[in-house]
Each structure stands twice: as structure tokens, then as C-alpha cells.
């Protein structure tokens, strides 16, 4: 799987079988339903599926007709995503290259319930423990096939922009995990880009010296740290470090060892003592792996 992905990335090749036949995907609107930092989201129909078309601005053709360097990663991750099969990973149908001139659109299932923050806002009585297990199982599967997520977090700016979505059966699905790696290296070296992810970011990604690392690199452990932060958010309904607006302040607190507190009102929602202790362990230097969430 990884070998095929690397070869496709190196030579900027997308297998023809990944390209969806012309006319098979139909847009349902003339305008995108969401505008993200690096992608526009359109709604469409593919066969019997309602689908999302994610058009990534980074892949617009340059004036000389060549694609940007990020195309390597796009090709590699598209190949890997297409071959993943798991109940907590968003199904990926293929790539549309017809609707958007000089751009490629990833086609995946549409999530009518939106992202996990929006879903919990609309369904406050939802089973939050089940949703946390869904996320943990999805992440464990990615780790089992040697994929690091890199930028796991919730989003509150738009219901249909997120990397944690909820499907019709109230199951949490991870998405965009492969494409997060397109941006994570850039994010770690760019303060403005990292700012939006700072509240979920492990301390060693902010400053690798805290764990005696030579450089900041996404790892299984940094993914688990971010997962625990999202799970804390699911049970509390609060943004991590919500009381501190400047991200620079959040960064200073995290590097000093400060972590979010556990509110009493989260206990009836399922945040038990055992789960609270597990979250704290995931924020420590010696972290558990994702599969330990349900074992």
C-alpha cells in the first residue's frame, strides 16, 4: 500500500482507475457549501450516494501548465486513502477532474450531520462515549497501516469543514487524514498556519526539545495527544483552553505542562474518573496508543 503510494507520489501519477468517469458525478449547487483554509467543499451526487467534492486550491495549475510540488503528496495520499477500508474512515470514491478546470476534486461520502461539534450541538443527548470509541478505532486503524494523521482536531467555523464527521448512523468518521500530511510540515514551520491547530498540538510539535527530539515530526504519540484533546472537547463542549484567546498564551501553557481542567458537569455525559485518567495519560510524555481507549 505505502509502496504504491510512494511510487505514485514520486512520479505524480494517479491511476486511471481512480478517475471517476465523466458525467458520473453531478453537482447539486452552483456554489460551494463551505470555504476552508485550503479547500472548497461542494455537494454532489455520485450514483446512489450524496457526496462531497473537495477541491484543493493547492493543486491549481501554474501558468506553465505544471502542478505544484504538493501534487506529489496529493497523488500518494489519494492512492492510500482509496485502498483503506474501515467502519470509522470516510469512504473515498475517487477523483473528479472534469468539473473544475486545472483542479482535482476528491469525492467522498457526504455527511448530513456535519462535523462532530455541530452534531453534538444539535444532538446534546448523543452517546459521546461511543463517538470517542469511533474516533479511537479509526485512528488505531490508520496507525496499524503506518499512517500518522498529523492534524487531528475539531472545527467550529463551518458544519461541513472538519476531519471528524458524523454519518447518518451517528457514527464518527475520520477524514482528510492523508491530506493533513500535505500541510503539516508547512504548518510546523509557519507560525500563522500553526496557530489554528495550536490547542490540539502536542508540546513536542511546538518545541521538539521538550522530548529531546532533533526536529518536530508527527508521530503516533502526537496523534494520541490530539485525540485526547478532541475527546476532552466532546465531553465538555468547550474549546481547549477556551479561557485564553491568544494562541501564544496557549503554547506557553502547554510547554509548561498545563492541560485543560476536568469540569464536574462533564461527568453525567460520560467523562468518568477512569476516562479522565486516560486522557491525562495521553497528554503525558509517556503516552498510550489509540487502541487502549477500548481495551
Give an overview of the whole structure.
Pfam families: PK_Tyr_Ser-Thr (PF07714). This is Kinase-like protein. By secondary structure, the protein is an alpha+beta fold. The protein folds into 2 domains: about 1-110, Phosphorylase Kinase, domain 1; about 115-290, Transferase(Phosphotransferase), domain 1. About 35% of the residues lie in helices and about 15% in strands. It has helices at about 1-10, 70-80, 115-120, 130-145, 175-190, 190-195, 205, 220-235, 245-255, 275-285; strands spanning about 25, 35, 40-45, 50-55, 90-95, 105-110, 165, 170-175. Strand 3 and strand 4 form a beta hairpin. Residues about 60-65 have low confidence and may be disordered.
Based on the model shown, name its key terms.
six-stranded antiparallel beta sheet, 295 residues, protein serine/threonine kinase activity, Ser/Thr_Kinases-Pseudokinases, two-stranded antiparallel sheet, Phosphorylase Kinase, domain 1, Prot_kinase_dom, Kinase-like protein, single chain, Transferase(Phosphotransferase), domain 1, 10 helices, alpha+beta, transferase
